[in-house]
Structure formats: C-alpha cells, structure tokens
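JOB MANIFEST
job_type = single_chain_structure
chain_count = 1
residues = 282
[input]
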Amino acid sequence: MSQTLTRQPRNSNRTLLHSNPVLSRLSRVEERATTDAATYGGIASKTTYFLLVTLAGMLGQLLVKAALASEPVWQSFTIYKRFTLSLSKTEGVILLAVLAVGFICQLAAIFGRRTIPVTGTVYSASQGYLISFLVFKVLNGYEHLGLEALLLTVAVVLAMSWLYTSGLVRGGKKFRAVLLALILGSVGVGLLGFVGSLIPATRPYVQAMMQNAGLCIALDVIGLVIAALFLISDFSLIDTCVQEGYPKQYEWAAAFGLVFTVIWIYLKILDLLMQFAGNKDN
C-alpha cells in the first residue's frame, strides 16, 4: 500500500540523549504517514525476529564449538579467578571476526537506518554468538548462569515496562536529566581511571582499585541501572513512533533499538553473575 508523507516541525525536546544510539535517531524523524503507519504489533513482530536471529547466532556458536572440539589449544586465559578459557587458533580468529562484523553492523545501523533489516540481523546474530561463547565456552561448569541471566533480564524488562505503562516513571525532561547525570558520572569515572593509569604516581592505586572485586561489582551494578533506565527512553520513543504516525519502515529501527538495549542488559547481568561466581571463595 502506498503511503503519503508529510513534514512535521522538529521537537527539540527529544534530542538530548533520549535513548540508545539506534533509537535516538528516531527522535529526529520528520516523516509522517497517512497510510500504512508504524504499529505496536509491527514493532513487536520485528523485535521477535531479531531475538530469534540472536538465538540462531547462539546455535551457530555451538556448531562451531562442536566442529573445532578436536583442535589443539592455542591460548588459555583466566577470567575472574575461577574461569579458565582455552581457545584454539581457529576459535580465536572466528570470535574476533564475529565481534568485528557485529561492531561494523552496529555502526551501520546507527548511521544508516535503511540498512537495519540487514545490519540489524547480522548484529543480532553476532551478539547471539558472543552470548553462547560466554555461556558455553567461558562458563564451563557454570552454564546455569546463562539461564539465570536470561530470567533476570526478563524480570528487568517486565519491571521497567510496568513502571512505564503505569505512569510511575516517564521519559520526560527530569528523567532524561537524571539519566544524563548518571551517564556523565560513569564516563567521568572511566576517564579518571584511564588518566590515573597513565600517571606513574597514581597507577598503583588505579590498579589496586581495578582488582577490587567489590568496587568492580559496584560499577557494574551502576552500569546495569543505567542500561535498565534506557528501557524507559526506548519505550517512550516507541510510543512516539506509533502515536505520531511514523512510516511503517521505522518499525525496524524501533525494534532493533529495543533489542539492542535488552542484549546490553543481558550481558551486564551475565557479567555480574560471572564476577560473583568467579570471585567467591567457596
């Protein structure tokens, strides 16, 4: 069905760190459709598609793992004291290639919205590969942490969805100001740590802090809170996409942006669980 596009004035209140890099570009959309506009059902179906592609990426990693099981170990790494990762050379090359392709597709999706049906698919598959690698390769003997992370991710998404739909938390100016403050604070701490590691007088203190399990977990918890709060902004922009009548093609961007945040939350939770399990004494 053909669609007629009209131009609307920009809403300048929707441009300040309103959401993740993918969805934030939706805040500057000027196109409106009089027919065949974006719907919640369309966004939900495309979100499901990207999640299924992520699952396919996980299955792909398991097939690669099985095919390369007989290859000799190339490098071994210790992660969080408890987990030992042994890699063959082929596994290492494939992992680096998957991560590189995923990163490139992520950038392409951010700056080229029309590419999202393709780049979003490849990115989701790469993240599925990474998740499966962490769960079934790194967490050897602790694979149950992957399921626990999934259940906690679902709980976070449902909780934030309830907070948004109930009206208790909305993605308004005050919310964006708080989110911006948290982001800037997190970036500031990271920059201070980086600068401190470059100065000989402060380097030992920075290294000691980075080796402090409690501090690392606290920083990861803050990162998880920020990721969860981004869901509120995502929900707000999805509402905008539907209620303001964006063309149906923008469903891809809305769906991919939401999946982007959900995967981010899952990896944050999984990292936290890995730290708890990897650093405990018994």
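[summary]
The CA atoms of residues 77 and 257 lie 33 Å apart.
The chain has one domain: 5-279.
exit_status = 0
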